[in-house]
Write a structure and sequence with these properties.
With about 240 residues, this protein is of the alpha/beta class. It has helices at about 1-10, 55-60, 85-95, 110-120, 125-145, 160-170, 190-205, 220-225, and strands at about 10-25, 25-40, 45, 70-75, 75-80, 95-100, 180, 210-215, 225-230, 235. It has a single domain (about 40-70, about 85-235), classed as Rossmann fold (3-Layer(aba) Sandwich). Helix content is about 40%, strand content about 30%. The strands form two sheets. The protein has a six-stranded mixed sheet with strand order 6-7-8-3-9-10, sandwiched between helices. A four-stranded antiparallel sheet has the order 2-1-4-5. The longest helix has 18 residues, at about 125-145. The radius of gyration is 18 Å and the shape is globular. Bound molecules: adenosine-5'-triphosphate and magnesium ion (MG). Adenosine-5'-triphosphate binds near residues 23, 48 and 55.
């Protein structure tokens, strides 16, 4: 019973992941058989030196990329057998992504950027209604990251920490099960970075989502629950 309970708590499982990149005739092995369990609701930090394969691993966990060998299982479900459009559907529903350089659309307002993932897959029928609903939800999510008053600003009119809060709101709008963050404080000064991290921790507490953060920053790692070290494509104890 206890074992079954523990098993159910695993939301994501990387099973012996190998990732190779082909560069001409040369093959670069970036991950050398990574096995990792992520438990529902936990705060996981993946730390390690530059080039260790942290981003690669995060991309595999979020079905942004496919492993050369091994599997990623979401609650025992293997997405590898699904078509690219089915994978995109699940990626958009289950995962929220936050990146170091925000990746906001410069010609759209904060509100429009946040609303976008909620409109993915909306057809022409019911578009207006869906758009209205998405904008309302975007505003609520901007309130969650304390940025509602900047809803109509474009990214260029926002400070770095504010841009990252917009990016976090965009990652949250579809109420993801897992929030995957790649160096979310890497482009921010220490204080702003600390506030972003506190925000991520609060969001995890409020929503119960699982939080996986890739970072170089030992201070960031010190705030997390569990730390996994990745060195040269291997998890080290
Ligand atoms: N698309 C690609 N093609 C070829 N090599 C790649 C590709 N993406 C990453 N790599 C290589 O894989 C290795 C791991 O890259 P990755 O970006 O996962 O490292 P990282 O741990 O995230 O580093 P950093 O902390 O600098 O972000 C690096 O040597 C990188 O050059
Ligand atoms: Mg990286």
């Amino acid at each position: 019973m206890r074992k079954a309970q523990l098993h159910n708590d695993v939301i994501l499982r990387a099973d012996n992941l190998v990732k190779d990149y082909r560069i001409g005739r040369y093959t670069l092995r970036v991950l050398h058989g990574v096995t990792l369990e992520v438990r529902r609701g936990e705060f996981l930090c993946i730390v390690g030196p530059s080039g260790a394969g942290k981003s690669t691993l995060l991309h595999l966990l979020g079905i942004l990329d496919t492993p050369t060998e091994g599997k990623v299982l979401y609650r025992d479900k293997d997405f590898a057998s699904l078509s690219p459009s089915e994978q995109a559907y699940w990626r958009n529903r289950l995962f929220g992504f936050v990146f170091q350089f925000y990746h906001l659309m410069p010609d759209f307002t904060a509100l429009e950027n946040v609303a976008m993932p909620a409109l993915v897959g909306t057809g022409l029928t019911g578009w207006r209604q869906a758009r209205k609903k998405a904008r309302q939800e975007a505003l609520r999510t901007l309130e969650l990251v304390k940025l509602a008053e900047r809803a109509n600003h474009r990214p260029s009119q926002l400070a770095g920490g504010e841009r990252q809060r917009v990016a976090i709101a965009r990652a949250l709008i579809n109420k993801p099960e897992v929030l995957l963050c790649d160096e979310p404080t890497g482009n921010l000064d220490t204080d702003t970075g600390k506030r972003i991290l506190e925000l991520l921790c609060n969001i995890r507490e409020q929503t119960g989502c699982t939080l996986a953060v890739v970072t170089h920053d030992e201070d960031v790692a010190a705030m997390g629950g569990r730390i996994v070290h990745l060195v040269d494509g291997r998890i080290v104890q």
